[in-house]
């Protein structure tokens, strides 16, 4: 029995070893508090910057969609007014029965071009910001 007790570390030795694992030897305990405050503030600043960056990305995406919608509506409005003018003047000059289909094709082509142009404008605005 006595040999079994002496072979293993005592409770006091185990507690002292456990305490030394978490402590840096030679540093006073008061040093940890400013380091912890600094690390906490640094983490707060990083989180704050990440949130600001995410908000900027969301705002830019909203602006891009706004530019696309405004560009689409303006080009469609101009194309519709132009198609009415083309329909009346072209039909008056040329007695072609298929002229309305040509005008409708031009209107659909301008709609497709306005979508592509809107995405191009969004890319340019994103690069400028």
UniProtKB/TrEMBL annotation:
The chain crosses the membrane at residues 35-59, 66-88, 94-126. This is Uncharacterized protein. It comes from the Eukaryota. InterPro entries: At3g27390-like (IPR040229). Keywords: Membrane, Transmembrane, Transmembrane helix.
């Amino acid at each position: 029995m006595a040999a079994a007790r002496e072979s293993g570390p005592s409770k006091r030795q185990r507690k002292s070893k456990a305490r030394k694992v978490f402590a840096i030897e030679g540093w006073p305990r008061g040093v940890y508090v400013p380091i912890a405050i600094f690390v906490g503030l640094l983490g707060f600043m990083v989180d704050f910057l990440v949130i600001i960056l995410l908000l900027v990305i969301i705002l830019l995406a909203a602006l891009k969609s706004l530019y696309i919608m405004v560009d689409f509506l303006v080009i469609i409005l101009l194309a519709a007014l132009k198609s009415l003018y083309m329909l009346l003047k072209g039909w008056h000059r040329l007695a072609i029965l298929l002229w309305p289909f040509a005008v409708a094709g031009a209107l659909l082509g301008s709609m497709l071009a306005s979508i592509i142009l809107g995405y191009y404008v969004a890319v340019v605005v994103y690069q400028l910001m």
